[in-house]
Amino acid sequence: MNKKKALDYIQTHNLIGIKAGADRSSFLEIWMVVINDRIFARSWGLAEKSWYNSFLQNPKGQIQCGNLILNINTRVPTDNDALTDAINNAYLTKYNSEHNMEYAKGIIQTKHIEKTMEFIIDES
């Protein structure tokens, strides 16, 4: 049930809270998209101390969907090549406002596609 609530929230809200690993004390708001009931995000900043690199070191974390906080595991999707067009389209569709479009077009560029992460809600 919580997974469905999270998926619905992510599909209807632009900014989703993310906490990478156990060392972070606060949530960072990032863009996420849902494809086939799977949650994805791409790193924008590409910094060494980014949420993306933190998850590569420790795949555990949390997402915040409004008042709902869920534990997650993360992974680099092994089927990223097959999903790239769908994820690109999801970003361009979801973040299509005048203010966001520049960034939506940016996040579908190769350097960001290479930093795609999948978030798996821990339902245990």
- CATH architecture assignment name: Roll
Instruction: Briefly note the CATH topology name.
Output: Pnp Oxidase, Chain A
The CATH superfamily is: Electron Transport, Fmn-binding Protein, Chain A
How many helical stretches? 5
Q: Kindly give the count of domains.
A: 1
Relative helix content: 25-40%
Assign an overall shape.
globular
Could you say which structural class the secondary elements and strand pairing correspond to?
A: alpha+beta
What does this protein structure show overall?
By secondary structure, the chain is an alpha+beta fold. It has a single domain (2-121), classed as Roll (Pnp Oxidase, Chain A). It is built from five helices and seven strands. β5 (60-65) and β6 form a beta hairpin. The longest helix is centred in the C-terminal third of the chain and has 15 residues, at 80-94. The chain is globular, with a radius of gyration of 13 Å. 24% of the residues are buried.
